[in-house]
């Protein structure tokens, strides 16, 4: 029988194994529907089966493991996180949550124990939105908030999402059937690295998440006029890159001026991308976040107006595409209180902290009560191959989740073995 420490070592090993499945040879990049995603789903499915779980895949390609209750009318607790990554990612953002949940169920299975509710682990097929710029594809289907118009979105190679879903073994027509009804669900618990510096600064291994801030995602295209770098006078240029660069500094200035606002231009594609050609077109991504949805929306509107004004002043067209929005959500008070009691039961001081990062829990909050446990990560680094966690902190996270299951089982009238 594994102790939580050996379980934690297994979690670390498995995150390293999954981190080896990448679309790129020298860094970790795993987009929705890619072969490495298929390989990861297969690996996770194998570990789930070995833990006594029944494995299925839904219409978008989420991998789902189910561990039955000790009674036929038991409700279901959802657990999990995402298995896709950003570009040049770390190994823990997403997979850690799936592996910690699996470690808890492996311990139940090893004891031959069952709870008065079923447990289902979701390995979500896309949370980052790297391929289609629309985050939460996997969990939005489960929550029933997936926008069918997104099926027509195309990736950098012109592949429509609907075709990518079929190519991944899913079925775009069956997506509505993958929605989970709230009725029999107890809630959703997600374990995730903090991706920030607070736990490390406080010297704590884990923290309970109070809320997840909302985010807006846009694609902004500046279209000027490509021209000869040597012959077009500066006063006659319609330089798309200069317009986009002026906009980038407006974005930074607004975010610096507004407390709690963060705004990021993470992608910046210059065309035609030749050293002796005045850039005619720039497509950039914009990510805006704030704990207060009204502040975030007002900032987006202000940036939209700013982009149009910059384009007009420079004779550069500006196209603004909204790519998606998630509202700020508060974690469920009762589930979070149980999670805090579980942290206390493992001897830890309790710290509540808000999440600047988005998580599948924010997506699922539409259908179930949610709670999240953060795990300390070194220097708060994430979305970066330097992302790392300590095995002792992972062992604590597993112990907290085990305790939470005991508390929930007691509430559900079970006597957890
Ligand atoms: O962008 C985020 O907050 C998350 O990592 N998808
Ligand atoms: Mn994540
Ligand atoms: Mn992420």
Fold and architecture overview:
Helix content is 35%, strand content 22%. The chain has helices at 4-19, 35-50, 95-111, 137-143, 161-167, 198-202, 240-257, 293-314, 333-345, 360-364, 391-411; strands at 54-57, 63-67, 76-82, 118-124, 185-193, 206-212, 214-223, 227-228, 262-264, 268-271, 277-278, 281-290, 317-326, 329-330, 352-355, 370-375. Bound molecules: (2S)-amino(hydroxy)ethanoic acid and manganese (II) ion (2 copies). One manganese (II) ion binds next to loops.
List the helices and strands and how they pair.
Elements: H1 4-19, H2 35-50, E1 54-57, E2 63-67, E3 76-82, H3 95-111, E4 118-124, H4 137-143, H5 161-167, E5 185-193, H6 198-202, E6 206-212, E7 214-223, E8 227-228, H7 240-257, E9 262-264, E10 268-271, E11 277-278, E12 281-290, H8 293-314, E13 317-326, E14 329-330, H9 333-345, E15 352-355, H10 360-364, E16 370-375, H11 391-411
Parallel strand pairs: 3-4, 3-5, 5-16, 6-15
Antiparallel strand pairs: 1-2, 2-4, 6-14, 6-16, 7-12, 7-13, 8-11, 9-12, 10-12
Bound molecules: (2S)-amino(hydroxy)ethanoic acid and manganese (II) ion (2 copies).
(2S)-amino(hydroxy)ethanoic acid binds at residues 127-128, 135, 357-358.
Instruction: Note the main sheet.
Output: 9 strands, mixed
* Topology, number of strands: 16
Low-confidence stretches: none
Mean pLDDT: 96
Distance between the termini: 14 Å
* Ligand species: (2S)-amino(hydroxy)ethanoic acid, manganese (II) ion
What oligomeric state do the depicted chains represent?
A: single chain
Structural class by helix and strand composition: alpha+beta
Strand content: 15-25%
Instruction: Work out the radius of gyration.
Output: 23 Å
Shape: elongated
Helix content: 25-40%
H/E element sequence: HHEEEHEHHEHEEEHEEEEHEEHEHEH
Number of helical elements: 11
